[in-house]
Specification:
heterodimer, A: 136 residues, Alpha-Beta Plaits, four-stranded antiparallel beta sheet
Chain lengths: 136, 379
């Protein structure tokens, strides 16, 4: 099995293929249908034994770094213009890369404001695995 | 309470329930419930007859779960008169469980999970921790696996090769958690070896013992990989090596060579060398030739190239590498190693950095980065 991270972005990645307004301008039923699709998707993965985790992130964020010995951490941001902004993730544990791509494709078919798939770009990233015992 | 002794009883208990006419999936669930109860209650109240306790509790769990079933009374009447299973029957049942859990219709990951639970006697929570997934996910994976094999007859003859493959995967992959998967795999391989006369089962057990013997030397206290040539050989477990070599020699003498025996032979030759310099590389190349013949695997060809480089010099190693598919994992790392020995440190540093980028685990990535850094400092 191999673990993959499916990253949803608020911004960034290839140009969208379906043009749709921000979610706050959708009909409430369309928002519900979209959220329901995501929940159903996670439930389906629980049933197939492929679910690991999913979380959503707020749009705002702050950069933080060490400020030097005895000094408070330095913060910067939030940045309105950040090119890449992560909205959340889904972590799956699957038999193959092909299965990960298949699931990402399905996940991207969540309905938009008119009920048709929004086809958003999802970023698929493999996790490092455990080190094997036998290598020679 | 010794948990591995408790775990060893699990397949026999499941076998008893199946013999009483309970289907495998239901029996396995009942035994898992009994196991969880045993883990909770035995430390304070150890039973006088652990197996009898497990059978009684598992049977009660089954009855609780199937109260509405009409056949219940008939079943209860039947077990009043049933003779207890003899040792031979118990062995047959346990081996059948192995076959069922490693059935070819299962994906490797499902077979691993089902094997660890139904014959390994691990709890779902322990298996989930070992593979870093939520317990509910692992529970579903196991239920689905049981549904997949629901139509398989318990007494159908199975495929031992898939059982061995599953045990190899348990030994070689997985994060561990609270259960030592390598030791668990060795325990199960011992059990399979005791139930069959298969040479490859013994070969696999020898392979596991010989690799497990090096465990303490394989990583630093901080978790960094230590390559074989640099390992502190005084940390190798000599009793595991002796056991592995004894099993391997007896198995090779039977003249039924297979992949695991050949791999074990290579591990035994490494174990035999008091220092890295004393390694018998020509003999190791000979075993790699056997492995190429047996498996025709590109990974084996890659490892063979390393051995050829050690036996006949780095130029010969490079030549051997020429015939290997460059898309094989760790190809760049081997190329880097051989190029450094040829003397091209700059190229080796670049290849190590490339190899680090395509490593699939963090320990290996860090090891390759250190190699690149070492060469870049002195290049």
């Amino acid at each position: 099995m191999a673990k993959y991270l499916l990253l949803k972005h608020y911004r960034g990645g290839p140009a969208p293929v379906v043009d749709y307004p921000p979610m706050d301008q959708w009909a409430p039923e369309a928002v519900d249908a979209h959220v329901q699709y995501m929940e159903d998707f996670a439930s389906k993965l629980r049933e197939t034994g492929e679910f690991v985790d999913h979380q959503a992130l707020l749009p705002e964020g702050t950069f933080v770094r060490h400020g030097g010995e005895g000094r408070p951490p330095v913060t910067d941001g939030p940045f309105a213009e950040t090119k890449d902004l992560i909205a959340g993730w889904l972590i799956i544990d699957v038999d193959s890369y092909e299965r990960a791509v298949e699931l990402a494709g399905d996940y991207s078919a969540a309905p938009g404001p008119d009920g048709t798939p929004i086809c958003e770009w999802l970023e698929l990233r493999p996790f490092y695995s455990a080190a094997p015992t036998v290598v020679e | 309470m010794n948990e591995s002794l408790l775990r060893a009883l699990i397949p026999a208990v499941t076998g008893v329930l199946v013999r009483r006419g309970v289907d495998f999936a239901t029996a396995e669930d009942a035994v898992q419930d009994a196991l969880v109860q045993a883990l909770a209650s035995w430390p304070a109240n150890p039973p006088a007859d652990p197996k009898g306790w497990l059978i009684t509790v598992a049977w009660r769990k089954f009855l609780d779960a199937s109260r509405s079933e009409k056949s219940r009374q008939a079943r209860e009447a039947r077990i009043e008169t049933e003779p207890p299973p003899g040792p031979a029957q118990e062995t047959d049942d346990t081996l059948r469980l192995y076959f069922l859990c490693a059935h070819p219709s299962l994906t490797p990951a499902s077979a691993v999970a089902l094997t660890l639970r139904a014959v390994g006697g691990l709890t779902t929570r322990q298996i989930a921790k070992a593979y870093l997934v939520p317990e509910s996910t692992m529970a579903q994976r196991i239920s689905r696996a049981k549904r997949t094999v629901a139509g398989v007859r318990f007494d159908e003859s199975g495929d031992l090769a898939t059982v061995l493959r599953v045990l190899y995967l348990v030994f070689n992959e997985g994060y561990g958690g609270e259960v030592d998967l390598a030791e668990e795999a060795i325990r199960l391989a011992r059990q399979v070896t005791s139930m069959t006369a298969d040479a490859e089962a013994s070969g696999l057990l020898a392979l596991m013992l010989l690799h497990h013997a090096r465990r303490a030397a394989r990583t630093t206290a901080g978790g960094a990989l230590v390559p074989l040539a640099e390992q502190d050989r005084s940390k190798w477990d000599t009793s595991l090596i002796a056991e592995g070599v004894t099993i391997l020699q007896a198995t090779l003498a039977r003249d039924r060579l297979g992949e695991y025996q050949a791999q074990a032979a290579i591990a035994a030759l490494h174990a035999d060398a008091r220092t890295a310099a004393e390694t018998d590389w020509p003999q190791i190349v000979g075993w790699y030739d056997e492995l190429v013949r047996l498996t025709d695997s590109p990974v084996v060809r890659l490892n063979r190239a390393v051995a050829v480089g050690e036996a006949d010099g780095p130029q010969a190693g490079l030549a051997a590498l020429d015939g290997v598919d460059p898309s094989v994992p760790r190809y760049r790392a081997v190329q880097a190693y051989v190029q450094e020995r040829v003397g091209d440190r700059r190229l080796a540093a670049r290849l190590y950095a490339d190899a680090a980028r395509s490593a699939t685990n963090v320990a290996e990535r860090d090891h390759l980065l250190r190699q690149a850094a070492r060469l870049n400092v002195t290049a």
